[in-house]
UniProtKB/TrEMBL annotation, chain A:
Gene3D superfamilies: 3.90.1010.10, BolA-like. GO terms for cellular component: chloroplast. GO terms for biological process: iron-sulfur cluster assembly. Residues 220-276 are annotated as: Disordered. Pfam families: BolA, SufE. It comes from Arabidopsis arenosa (Sand rock-cress). It is found in: Plastid, Chloroplast. This is Fe-S metabolism associated domain-containing protein. It comes from the Eukaryota. Residues 93-212 form the Fe-S metabolism associated domain. Keywords: Chloroplast, Plastid, Transit peptide.
From TrEMBL, chain B:
Its cofactor is pyridoxal 5'-phosphate. This is cysteine desulfurase. SUPFAM superfamilies: PLP-dependent transferases. Keywords: Pyridoxal phosphate, Transferase. It comes from the Eukaryota. It holds the Pfam family Aminotran_5. It catalyses: (sulfur carrier)-H + L-cysteine = (sulfur carrier)-SH + L-alanine. Residues 77-451 form the Aminotransferase class V domain. Signal peptide: none annotated. Its EC number is 2.8.1.7.
Length: 368, 466
């Protein structure tokens, strides 16, 4: 069953997250926060079941989580272990059961050894954990159920172990659960990881990056799948994303800067700008050639009215920048680059006559 | 036994005589009983540099209370003095004393306390001047640290003397504090930075440096002793070459002043900088030495009180150096404590300290290189090449952070891992980071032995996981 989660414990740009998994049921509290509990007994090892049941009986009141996932919850000094993803709880308990520091390090290194290596193409700047004395990279992507899957690597064995811990503990979990994790649990590991945000604190920085990437995926996913297609982004990033030579890694219309909030509350597909002649032409062409299940053409030229390239080249009515959302079978079997190429090819005339840039979301019906 | 106990306190009152008296009494004690009284570790056998006497490291150990502690269940072995040194009780007492008995603002006061504070403050300046053999104490400008001192020269001398096309010569092995200020200033003035690379001994190439010096050169800014390579540069020769073309020389002496005799008149450097916290003094104070006529020609760096002569609404006139460059209330207590540190070091004698460190440094180098897969950066020690008492190194296949973490957690050994504020150097050497163990005169052979044993254990621990 799907559970809706209000935004109090995540960044305000998250508004509506449909869950397709049946793993969770939500426990509704009078307060705005919802706490999700893993429920399916078959998924959980037997000893864990006991703990969950016990906790369900005794705690009618779970303290509301504080807004930011990186600060500890208001009720006590540490975030309760039960709020962590199940695998992470297991890991914490494992480390707690190992008393001797040296054995803990051995355990940590063991995790690191089994970490799946990260392909070097993903060792990019945006995947690098900032402020680490050693080099650490983290990659995140959605699986079919929109759980976040992580991959990581490091040139230092200890940070590799820590990364492996986090990857194992957080992978396959949904975004809100990941965002809720406070770094307090590191204290429970007993590895004497400091939680101060200093330069040598790879652990804190890693967790933060993983949470940031999860949020990023969520925001991106929302833009793709939600019906509210109007979003605010800086002209620069939009232009970069929509130049015909599209980088296959980045999706168009991407909000790179996470500080930018997706705020618009309107439910309508456009923000009220009626399509001019070019817009109509684009719409006709795409409808004719792609036979789309869904098609949205939005004129956002006004957002680019400032920059020089627009002023001279407009042609008709200053229609220079459009957001396109197309769901069509025509994209079946085609890579992202190929899809965009297809669209650009169809709109060649417009591009030659003053259409400056397109921001494209191209999906097959199955992907929606 | 009682005799031993009574002799110990004499270490704390540090005059040259006290040390030697204590020294002699310890020898006597050792012969008569098997007590090892000097170092905190009662289990270690006392190793001496010369027969029948106790090594410098052991002798001074009791002056440094901070060294007598356990970290993570092991005895602390502090091998990070190149990052900051530990302070003897005499320095701490001086600082405490200042605040407890005569804290007062300096230079302008009339009353007793302020006069006393001023006297002590200026006395500290004289002590520093004497320590580096400056001809006049007015050639010593107190700053916050060496970094600020270099910035002072960059902004004050640099901005008013560098023109487009002028060249500033540095090495790739410089500390960031002797690179970044010049980058900033060269951007503002249009001057060009040139960098001397290393030769095959992993020392800055002196021949290349010589060739680089030309009539366009206005400044040569180099380290005396490298905090990563442990190599030293022939400053006297460099100064001669530079002065021949009318260029000035700034010496970054952070790793030399604390460890050996530095004589600015002999070196004939135009500027020299050092930090107190690396030479047994407190943090928050350092100094710039500048030749008198140079300082007199330089405009102020920071503006405010102390550095002015007369202040009107539309303009001000400035004080003579060093006051011209000491705006605001200085770190008075810290300067006085630095003076106490200078006294302490002079009490032992810089030549003695240097001699001890050369030997201990060589011991460190030898033991470290005896471990397999260890790569130490910088020149090999030899008759002609004296390394500083530090080793930056990497172990094949292991990350320095892993080493440092494990050494600390499991063995209480404190070393540093990272780029040691020398990213260009590490890039040049082709590594991301290195580990560094650095010694000071309060370290002992046992410290080095503990370190090497711990390192071997660490390496085998990590290797078992590969």
């Amino acid at each position: 069953m799907a559970a809706a989660m209000s935004s109090s414990c995540c960044a305000s740009s998250l508004r509506f997250i449909p869950f397709k998994r049946t793993l969770f049921s939500s426990i509704h509290f009078p307060a705005k926060t919802l706490i999700l509990r893993p429920l399916k007994p078959s998924e959980i090892p037997s000893f864990r079941r006991t703990i969950i049941t016990f906790q369900k009986i005794s705690t009618g009141i779970v303290p509301p989580l504080s807004a930011s996932s990186s600060s500890p919850s208001s009720s006590g000094d540490l975030q309760p272990i039960e709020e962590l993803p199940p695998k992470l709880q297991e890991i914490v308990k494992l480390f707690q059961s190992v008393q001797e520091p040296k054995a803990k390090y051995e355990q940590l290194l063991f995790y690191g050894k089994n970490l799946k290596p990260l392909d070097s193409q993903f060792k990019t700047r945006e995947n690098k954990v900032e402020g680490c004395v050693s080099q650490v990279w983290v990659r995140a992507f959605f699986d079919e159920q929109r759980n976040v899957v992580y991959e990581a690597d490091s040139d230092s064995l200890l940070t590799k172990g820590l990364a492996a811990l986090l990857v194992q503990g957080l992978s396959g979990r949904p975004v809100p659960e990941i965002l809720r994790i406070s770094p307090d649990f590191a204290l429970l590991l007993g590895l004497q990881q400091s939680l101060t945000p200093s330069r040598s604190n790879g652990f804190l920085n890693m967790l933060k990056l993983m949470q940031k990437k999860a949020l990023h995926l969520e925001v991106k996913g929302e833009e793709d799948s939600s019906s509210e297609s109007s979003f605010v982004s800086t002209p620069e990033t939009k232009d970069e994303a929509s130049v015909p030579e599209v980088d296959s890694e980045s999706k168009p219309g991407l909000v790179e800067d996470l500080g930018t909030e997706k705020i618009d509350d309107s439910d309508s597909g456009s923000n009220g700008v009626a399509l001019g002649s070019r817009g109509m032409r684009i719409r006709e062409r795409l409808e004719k050639e792609l036979n789309p299940v869904e098609l949205e053409v939005e004129d956002v030229s006004y957002q680019h009215a400032g920059h020089a390239a627009v002023r001279g080249s407009a042609g008709d009515d200053g229609e220079t920048h459009f957001n396109l959302r197309i769901v069509s079978d025509a994209f079946q079997g085609k890579s992202l680059v190929k899809r965009h190429r297809l669209i650009y090819d169809l709109l060649q005339e417009e591009l030659k006559s003053g259409l400056h840039a397109l921001s494209i979301v191209a999906k097959t019906p199955a992907e929606v | 036994m009682e005799g031993v106990a009574m002799k110990l306190p004499s270490f704390k009152s540090l005059s040259p005589n006290a040390i030697s008296i204590g020294h002699r009494s310890f020898s006597r004690v050792r012969r008569s009983s098997s007590l090892s009284v000097c170092s905190a570790a009662s289990s270690s056998a006392t190793i001496s540099t010369d027969s029948e006497s106790v090594s410098l490291g052991h002798r001074v150990r009791n002056d440094f209370r901070i060294l007598h502690q356990e970290v993570n269940g092991s005895k602390l072995v502090y091998l990070d003095s190149a990052a900051t040194s530990q302070k003897p009780a005499a320095v701490l007492d001086a600082l405490q004393n200042y605040y407890e008995f005569y804290n007062s603002n300096v230079h302008r006061g009339i009353h007793y306390l302020s006069a006393k504070a001023t006297d002590e403050f200026e006395l500290a300046r004289k002590k520093v001047a004497r320590f580096i053999n400056a001809s006049d104490s007015r050639e010593i400008v107190f700053t916050r640290n060496a970094t600020e001192a270099i910035n002072l020269v960059a902004y004050s001398w640099g901005l008013s003397n560098l023109k487009p096309g002028d060249e500033v010569i540095l090495t790739v092995a410089e500390h960031h504090s002797c690179i970044v200020p010049w980058q900033i200033v060269s951007q503002k003035t249009g001057a060009v930075l040139k960098f001397v690379t290393l030769n095959e001994d992993e020392v800055p190439d002196i021949e290349k440096l010589r060739e680089m010096i030309s009539p366009k050169t206005k400044l040569v800014a180099v380290h005396h002793v490298s905090n990563v390579l442990a190599s030293s540069l022939p400053i006297e020769e460099i100064v001669v070459w530079a002065h021949n073309v009318g260029a000035k020389v700034l010496v970054d002496a952070c790793q030399s002043v604390p460890h050996m005799v530095v004589d600015v008149q002999k070196l004939n450097a135009d500027f020299l900088v050092a930090s107190s916290h690396k030479m047994c003094g407190p943090t928050g104070i350092g100094f710039l030495y500048g030749k008198s006529d140079l300082l007199h020609s330089m405009p102020p760096f920071l503006g405010g009180g102390e550095m002015i002569s007369d202040v009107f609404l539309d303009h001000s006139t400035y004080a003579e150096p060093p006051s011209r460059f000491e705006a605001g209330t200085p770190a008075i207590g810290e300067a006085i404590a630095l003076g106490a540190a200078v006294d302490y070091l002079s009490g032992i004698g810089m030549p003695k300290i240097h001699e001890y460190e050369v030997e201990l440094g060589k011991y460190l180098y030898e033991k470290l290189s005896s471990l397999p897969d260890v790569r130490i950066y910088g020149p090999r020690p030899s008759e002609s090449v004296h390394r500083g008492a530090l080793c930056s190194f990497n172990v094949e296949g292991l990350h320095p952070t892993d080493l440092a973490t494990f050494l600390d957690q499991q063995h209480g050994v404190a070393i540093r891992s990272g780029h040691h504020c020398a990213q260009p150097l590490h890039r040049y050497l082709g590594v991301n980071a290195s580990a560094r163990a650095s010694l000071y005169f309060y370290n002992t052979k046992e410290d080095v032995d503990s370190f090497v044993v711990a390192l071997a254990d660490t390496v085998s621990f990590f290797n078992s996981f590969k």
